[in-house]
Every structure is written in C-alpha cells, then in structure tokens.
Amino acid sequence: MSQPVTFEPGIRYLFQGRGYQVVLILSGGMLVARNLETNALVSQRLAELWHHWQENTLEFAREGPNLDEQATTPLKTRSTFTELADLPPHLQEIARHRYQLIRPLLLLSSRQRTKEVVEARIQTYLSSLNPASAPHTPQPLEPEEHQTMLASSPHLAPFFDITPRTVSRWIRRYQESHEDIRSLVPSYHQRGPRHHRFSPLLEHFLQEAIKETYLTNVRAPVTHVITAFKKRIILENATRPAEEHLLAPGNMTIYRYIQRLDALDVDTARLGKAHAQRKHHQTQLGPLHTRPNQRAELDFARLDLLVVDPNDRLPIGRPTIAAIRDKYTGYPLGVFISFDPPSYRVAMECMLYAFLPKEHVQTQFHTQHAYLAFGIPEVLVVDNGMELDRDLELACLQLGIELQHMPVRKPWFKGSIERWFRTLNTDLIHVTPGTTFSHFLERGDYQSQHHACITLDKLWELLHLWIVDVYTQEVHRGVGGHPRGKGIPARLWEQALEEHFVPRLPPSRNDLLVLVSRTATRTIHHYGIEFEQLRYQDPKLAALRSKLARAKTYRSTHSAIARHREDEIKEGIVHIKYYPGDLSRIWVLDPFSNRYLEVEAVDKDYTQQLSLWKHRVIKRYVQEELKRQVNQQALVLAKARLQQCITDEIRLTRKLRTRQSMTRWWNEQVTTWINASTHAAAETFINTPVDTSQDGNREVTEEHAPLESSLEAEAMDPHYHSTTTTLAGVADLSAPLGDIQEQVFLQPDQNGQTPFEPFPPLSFEECTPFDKKQRPPRKSTTAPRHRRARQGQSSATAQEPEEHIPPLHTGQQEHTSELPLTSITELTTTITERQQSFGIAVRSTHWRS
C-alpha cells in the first residue's frame, strides 16, 4: 500500500470522470485546481472533495509501473494487481529484496547517492545473502559462492548482474509511486505486445472469417477460421503487386485474438441462447420466507425406476411423479405417481393430495411418524408448460392461490424442488432394484429389466416411508427461511404448529373436487350429454333441458348472475366439469341457479375408475383395430371399378341420346302393344306344343347362342353392338318388360286389323346406332318426327309388298281368347319371318318358366 495522500499542490485526482491537478491551497478550506483536458482553473471546497472520496466518486492518481490503463479515463488510478500477497512467491521475494536493497539509499540525498556508494551497497547486500559470511563483516562473493546461492535461490539470479543505474531506477519508481512497494514488482506480465498488430484490412478479413466459420452452430474448430482467413489473404494478394502482398500472421496470434472475444457472444452463436444464458447466468438472493405454506413449488419428473406388473411381474415402464414442496420448511406437501405423462390431470391429483390432511398414511403405510404437511399454499410456483392451462389458473384463483409461472428453461427459479428430485433419486430410486440411473453411462452393464421387482403399490409405500421417516427427519440446507440456513423439516413444521400456525382449507371437500376438475361446454340432448363419446344421463337434465328450450322462445327471466350466459342459454349450451382421473361422473352447471348438478355415466361398468388418458388410449386402439380389419387395397379397387362403370354408362348414354330421341314415339307404341299382347302370346305358347325333335333342339340352340355371345361380348366391351340382342334392344328403349323375357307377339282385333301400320324392315347398317358425325341430314317437312324418320328409311324396301295384318283391339284382352288358334299361329309365323322397322330382331322362341 502506498503512503497516504492528501490535497497539496501537484497532486492529481480523478473526479466525475475528469482529471484535475491541485494548483494552490487557499484559506477557508478552498483550493484551486486545473482541468487537465481544458486547462481551465476551478475552485472547489475541500470538505466536498473529501465527501466524494468517501462515496468512492473521487480517486487520487497513481504513478509508476504496474498500473492499469483505461481508455475512458485520463489518469491511472488502479494497479494491475490489488494485493502483493496475490502474486506468485518468487515475485514477492524479488520485490522484498529490492526494497531491502534500496532502503538505506532512500535516507541519502540525490547528491550523496553516487555511483561508488550504490555499488558498495550492492556488494554489501549480496554478501549479506551468503549464509557463510559473518553478519557484521560481509565479504565480496566468490564465483563458487555465486553458484551455491543460485542453486538454493534461483530467483536471485538478476541481483548478481544489477548495475547502479538499475538501482537508481528502482529508487525513482518507488518515490514516484508515493513509496508503494508494488512498484518494485517485476513487470513480466507487460512483456511483449499488448495489442494485436493487424492492419485494418487484415483485421476485417479475420472478423469475416470468424463470423462465417466460427460463430455458427456448426461449432467448427479454430483451424477452419485460419483456413478461411488465409484464403481471403491469397485472393487479395492475387490482385496486388508482389511488393504489396499481405503477410498472414501466425496461428497463435489468431488463437489469442479469438480468446479475447466475449465468451457470452461466442457461446450464444455456437451453443444457442438458452445454453449460453444457463452457462453465464447470475443469480441473486431470492425472497425470504417466514412461515409454512407461504410458497410452494410444483414440478414433474420421470422416475429412474422400472415398475413391474403385479400379476405377471414383467416391467411395464417408468412412472411419472408430481410433487409439491414447501419452501420454508422443505416438507413435501404431497406427491402423486402415475404412468400418465405430465399433464393437468396429474397436477390436479397432486394438488388434491397435498391440500387434504393425510391421517391415513401412518395406518396404511405403517410409518413411524405422521405425515404433518397439508393445507392450501399462498403462492404456487409452476413451470411455464403447455400441460398447465387456464383451468389451473381458474382453480387457483378461486382457492386463493397466487399462481406464478416461471420463465421457460430456467429451472433455478424453483431450485428447491429440483434439488428434492435429485435427493430422491440418489437416496431412494438409484438404490432400488430395477433402477435405470440418470444416465446410461452410470448404468453400465446393469440390466434394469432383469432386476426390476417393484410394483406401483409398493413404490407408493416406499416413497411414503422415505418421505415421512427419512427425508423429513434429517438436517437439510436451505430451509428455515434462509438459503444458507439449516434445519429439520419435521421439526420446523411442528414448531410452526406450536406457534399457532393453522393451515388453510376450503369450506367443503366436494367444492375442492369440483374446483380441481376441468371445464368444457356441451349441449343437452334427449339422450343426455355426450362427452368423449360417453353418455351421461340423469332425470335432473330433463328439467334443465326444458328450461333451456323455453329460453329460446321466451324472454329470459333468470338471475343477473347468469345474464352473461344469455347467448349460450339461447343456443342450449351448458358448462360442464369433469375430473380427468375419473370419468364415471360429470358436473353440469345450471345457468339459472348457478349450481352444479352431478350426472353419472350411462355405462357405469366401463367408466368405473376410468381416467381420461386411459379412455383415449382405448379409443385409439379401437380405431387402429378397425383400420386393420379393412382391406384397403380391395376397397380402392372396388371404388375404381365403380367409377369405371359410371364412366362407361356416361359414354353409352351420350351415344344413344340421338337414338333415344328418335325412338321416343316408338317407345310409347311398343309399350302399348307389349302390354296388350302379353297375355295372349303367353296362352299361345302354352297351348302350342314344343318341338322336341333334333332339328328343333338345334334351332333353339342356334337361336340362343348368338344372344348369349352378344351379351357376353357387350359385358366385356361397352362399345360392342349386335343386332341379335333382342332383350338389350328393348332395355335401351326403356320399355317396361314386366315378366316377359323373350319374344313379342301381336294379336289382331275382332275385325282382323293390327293396331298400327307395319314398318318396312331395316338393314344391318341402319339397325346399328350411328354417331353424331354419321347422322343423316334432317329434311324440312311438316310431317311428324316419326313419319320423317320412316320416310328416310323406306327407300331401300319400297318395292317389297306389305302384308296386311288385321288391327288388334288394345285394351280388351277378353276378346283375344276368342280368336282361332290357326290365326294366331299364322300371325306369329308372319311376324317372326320379318324384321320390324324399330330395330328389334324378333324370333320365335319358347317361354322360360
């Protein structure tokens, strides 16, 4: 430490970032100082300057070596090291020997410190360092004595080569620094260049190489930076003459340049913002607590333990634990173990278990001590996770709990519950058979699935035994209201109860069960309420449904409490509450009385002890099973075949539109005489014996073979056309056939007249449907459409004599039986030998039964 400094002429000091030098001390406690930047003289009071020095806003300037230079201040006010004891031992010894050497010379004036006096002092001091010399008669050292002393004290080697000029420099430094011994410490740390010697262009190239190669999430090594940096230099030298080429600095220079970069910026670019903040974050002292249930922390964790099935003893997985821990006492308020992932349901189950008294624990799990902690906390700290949604906030508001969401990926804001999970793993989970440990490297060759033997019920028992009889009975750090405090959680809780601490509880246990349930909106139907494909029905819903129906028609007269739900009431929407852990019942809010109605499920056997998560797993499994039972390939082929059939029908319909429009009148005539002659023709064939001879059989076979082949060909090719397909032609004309399948027969009336004039037969080309391009030109005539078509087709058979057929009296079928059999036979023979003009090939065949 330097000698005390006071305000006197020539003293320089730094005040409010500006440098001043004392010029004159005035009477009355005033002084005159000169501003070192502007050379302006100012007057200041000594009392005010001493006050600023006490507040550390004023510092005196320092002189000499080993001072820290600051670019923002004009004066040096700090040393490169604060205390001499912080230096290495050999530097401390050198500084001490230098001080012992110059100490007698400081008593002499500058004129008395001649060269001979200084040299004599050097020899005297070196002789005193020799342990063999007498203390009062030091002698000059011999070369052998030099080697012996250097072997015992290597740091004294510089003393054997010092000169009077070096000693004079030490004295000057010591006096300029106001006799500060730190000025005698060797400045080895200031050797070499203090800053890089890059030219602005080289530094620009290096910064670009670092930005593009090093400050990326690829995390490339420094060697890539060197390569990219030298590449830029080579490209730049290609455009310069040989005498102006840039020289690349050494690799160690680049390494040192990168090491001087800001560590936070480097980690943010290479590791990510979250990782950099966790690595460089700074914590402060949090709020101090004075009583239990003042602050509680809730969190989830997946246990490092495989749980087995109680029936077949096979591993079924690692369960999830939710825990709430009191911050003041360190006592766990409640825990909940489940195979459900972290969710609102698990949080609600844990809160319900934590708030209620636990008098059953000592009896059920046979613990030595009672489970003391219970009650509603004042503040509940949770993660900012998606599983904790608005329902939890509403429940906490009604219970009088202040819910605090911690920032994302910052677990140190609730470090006590995080530390509790670590203690749980190390003390209980990792010493239980079937543990998976926290990391696979810790597990090593341990086969967790082979050693697993703990069921979920036994895990509940082990957890309560550890909490009640082990953890809460030990001394822990960070409890009792101070982060550095120590205490026993059970004793702290008992002490609070003795000091008249009363935990808070809700007015009703049922109200608490409703509050921790989730909310949804549904509509009441005649079959009840449907929720998650489950039906809930109760007679109380019928009255509520009637009220909602009347509210749609009449003006609502319900209380002011439910007026904010007027739109929902008119739409028939009601609010429901459901407990995710048990779907056997729901609670329906009556908007008129603002009370919840408990409604049970219709299928009580299925919903008993059924959780929402388990129900969704079952539904997903059923859907997957139904998908497996469907032959997707066959279904796709069937749909394609159906579409192809529709496409074929569309094409056929387009080609037959012209033909159908021309035969619209013929269709009406065919329908008329078919209906009139069906009964008579049937009697004719019944009364006519069938020819069973060989020729008759061959005739029938020849007649049926073309028909079957044409139908088969048309089924294979939709564009196939045949003049021998009698039935297909009738179907195309849309004539109702009834029971008739084969032949058409006409009967004359009593006068022997046919119902219409016979048409001349058509040729094969004319019987075939024609395309639109081959349609014959339409002639301008006043005759009906069917007459014009008949006139266009009768030119080919104009000379053929027409046979006179007696007219048939339609509509009086009772006269058909009066005709002689010979006339009917002749009539059918005549018809079968001809081909009618409407394109139907008529053949004589027998009826099929």
Automatic annotation (TrEMBL):
Residues of the Integrase catalytic domain: 288-497
InterPro entries with a match to the protein in the record: Integrase_cat-core, RNaseH-like_sf, RNaseH_sf, Transposase-like_Mu_C
Any Pfam family the entry gives: Mu-transpos_C
PROSITE patterns membership: INTEGRASE (PS50994)
Sequence ranges of Basic and acidic residues compositional bias: 696-706
SUPFAM superfamilies, A to Z: Ribonuclease H-like (SSF53098)
Domain of life: Bacteria
Stretches assigned to coiled coil: none
Region annotated Disordered, chain positions: 687-713, 749-819
Name recorded for this polypeptide: Integrase catalytic domain-containing protein
